[in-house]
Design goal:
It is a single chain. Helix content is 55%, strand content 14%. With 378 residues, it is of the alpha/beta class. It has a four-stranded mixed sheet, with helices on both faces. A three-stranded mixed sheet has the order 7-8-9. Strands 5-6 form a two-stranded antiparallel ribbon. Helix 5 packs antiparallel against helix 6 and helix 6 packs antiparallel against helix 7. The longest helix is centred in the N-terminal third of the chain and has 30 residues.
């Protein structure tokens, strides 16, 4: 859920949802505003757009390097959010049994390999651009300051990649160096605690970069992006921790309305009016035989008039046990487009989890854990 904050969808890679964080638009605005003084506004905007595009291309190459190593085995990210300093990954919540895997199901050695390949890709890309620039743009003057400037995009492209690589080698979470630090810490402590420790180290670098911004605005901008990324990543890990440790019986609705397959659609709609539910289990006797939504009932009434619930109910549905984790329900709902999961105990329907109450419950649980953690730290 946190990964969706302030980001827009940008397609899929190998089934992984890719999103672009709105800090790219902040970067575009920052570059345009700082470089537009006394210049042609249209030309400056186009060059600012090209500059931002170069940063995005460098970040894409960086993340493709991570993904190339990830594809060799082990869990793949469920989603990636691209920021101007790199990408944030939301991992699939899968636990693996192995002596070299941390408590959270993450292999520290694998995470270190994945982390280090990103900066290496940017360094290789920068070296390749140096060769190309010397061959085709000898006037680029690659070492001449300012290293990042709209008037010389070839030189900027080289230094953007070197800057992203150097920045990501810092042990500041959520940069790649910070991920290496978290992987090392997770060998000796809980994954969420290791993340918080790495975030704390990252915050020191945020302060340092912000202070360095008194001499160089690019360092201040990097500090800002690092702060945004750290907060986003910490919320994501906290959210994931909630998913892994909360059971269905803790969040399921135990007071809910059901429908019968023999109910007419008008009767079903009448029942739906008197409840806040949008989705209903369909029960015959003590057996659950399907699910149906309020929207589907309304649509069927509009299209074909009154009929029976059994004619429109969905007979293919997922169920969960009351001791299943919230993570399993969240995976089923997000990957299969479900809006309701019946909860059963010994083949008896004991509750339901809907998309509405799932999102509400996770928000409340995440906040309660954050408050509890704050009290423990005091």
């Amino acid at each position: 859920m946190g990964m969706r904050s302030w980001s827009i969808p940008a397609g899929q890679w190998f089934g992984i949802n890719v999103r672009v964080h709105l800090t790219f638009f902040f970067l575009l605005l920052f570059v345009w505003m700082t470089e537009s003084k006394g210049a042609d506004p249209t030309n400056t905007f186009l060059r600012s757009l090209a500059f931002t595009g170069i940063v995005m291309a460098a970040v894409l190459a960086h993340e493709l390097g991570h993904l190339a190593v990830s594809l060799r085995g082990g869990p793949l990210p469920r989603a990636i959010v691209l920021l101007p300093i790199g990408g944030l990954s939301l991992m699939e919540s899968a636990r693996e049994e192995s002596s070299h895997i941390s408590h959270h199901g993450v292999d520290p050695q694998r995470e270190i390999r994945i982390a280090l390949v990103g900066p290496m890709v940017n360094i290789a890309l920068a070296l390749g651009l140096v060769v190309i620039a010397r061959e085709f743009w000898p006037q680029a003057a690659l070492r001449q300051p300012p290293l990042l400037h709209l008037a010389n995009l070839p030189r900027s492209a080289v230094w953007i990649n070197l800057f992203i690589a150097g920045l990501n080698l810092l042990p500041a979470f959520p940069l790649d160096g910070g991920r290496v630090l978290r992987a090392l810490l997770s060998r000796h402590m809980d994954y969420a605690l290791a993340t918080r420790r790495a975030v704390n180290v990252g915050n020191l670098f945020v302060i340092s970069l912000m202070a360095a911004g008194l001499w160089n605005t690019w360092l201040m901008l990097a500090g800002f992006f690092l702060f945004v990324g750290a907060q986003l990543e910490e919320r994501t890990v906290l959210f994931q921790s909630v998913l892994e440790n909360v059971r269905m019986e803790e969040v399921m609705l135990t007071e809910f309305s059901t429908l019968s397959p023999a109910d007419t659609l008008e009767d079903a709609l009448s029942k739906a009016v008197h409840t806040l539910q949008d989705d209903f289990p369909v029960v015959r006797g003590t057996d659950m035989v399907g699910v149906v939504s309020r929207h589907k009932i309304l649509q069927a009434l509009r299209d074909g008039g009154n009929a029976y619930v059994q004619s429109i109910m969905n007979r293919a549905y997922e169920i969960a046990g009351k001791n299943d984790t919230l993570a399993s329900a969240f995976r089923k709902i997000t990957s299969r487009g479900l809006t309701i999961i019946p909860v059963v105990d010994q083949e008896r329907l004991v509750g339901i989890v809907t998309l509405q109450n799932l999102m509400h419950s996770m928000s409340v649980l995440a906040e309660s854990r954050k408050l509890r953690r704050g009290q423990e730290e005091e």
